[in-house]
Every structure is written in structure tokens, then in C-alpha cells.
Amino acid sequence: MDRTTISLPEELLERLRAMAAERRTSMAALIREALEEKAKSYRPRPRSWGIGASGHTDTASKAGDLRPEPRSWR
């Protein structure tokens, strides 16, 4: 198991201490439990095949603004 350091606001730290004492567990176990619960709901975004991927999410909405006026064929 790896160690990490996090910074927490004092009020959150006090609430975690109280919760850990109430449950008779360590703060580390309480935090791991909360992180596991949060990580369960994570679903990575589907990746495109890269065909035509510009990296911009608003390309289609801008395309109409950038399209030149058609020239007359007569």
C-alpha cells in the first residue's frame, strides 16, 4: 500500500475525526472507504477512433458560422 498526503480544511478534518471515533476505526480506513465509494462510480469517457478528431467539442456548432456564402453558378 502506498502513502499519500492530502490537505483538508480544518472543519472537514474535525468531522472525519469524529466519524472515525464514532465508528471505532482509523481516519485512514474511513478515507479509503470514501475514496473507494467515489472511484466505483467512475466511468472513463469513451475514446474516439481519432477519425476527424480535432480536439474541439464545438466544431459542429461553429461550422455554420465559418461556412462561406455559396457563389452564384450563373
Question: Which structural traits does this protein have?
Answer:
74 residues; mainly alpha
Shape, principal axes of CA atoms: rod-shaped
Total of helices: 3
- The total strand number stands at 0
Gyration radius, rounded: 25 Å
Residues in helices, as a percent range: 40-55%
Largest sheet, in brief, is:
none
Low-pLDDT regions: none
How much of the sequence is in beta strands? under 5%
**Strand/helix succession:** HHH
Mean pLDDT rating: 83
Termini distance? 75 Å
The SS-based structural class is mainly alpha
Give an overview of the whole structure.
With 74 residues, the chain is mainly α. It contains 3 helices and no strands. It has a domain at 8-42. The chain is rod-shaped and about 85 Å long. 0% of the residues are buried. The mean pLDDT is 83.
